[in-house]
Amino acid sequence: MRKIADCRDFPSETKCTLAISGEEEEVVRAAGEHAESVHGHTNGPELREQIRSMLKDDVPQHA
After folding, report:
1. What is the pTM of this model?
2. Of the candidates 28, 30, 37, 60, which lies 20 to 30 Å from 48 by C-alpha distance?
């Protein structure tokens, strides 16, 4: 199942609204890179585990 990481679920001073969805490992990697480059976090095992723990299932929206 696809997963989603949504910046709106994380405390942020920038009020970022980016959402990243895909396979779990892809999302964790991309969200870690985003957290580092945009939000100034250190992209390491601790951050990736925090991201992984906050992932949600990406439920497709059908018209």
Report:
1. 0.86
2. 60
Cβ partners under 8 Å of residue 46, min gap 6: none
Residue 29 domain flag = yes
Q: How many domains does the chain have?
A: 1
Sequential pLDDT tens for the chain (63 residues):
899 999 998 777 888 999 999 999 999 999 999 999 999 999 999 999 999 999 999 987 776
Residue at 40 is within a domain: yes
Per-residue exposure over 24-49, b if at least 16 CB sit within 10 Å of its own CB, e if not = eeebbbbbbebbeeeeebebeeebbe
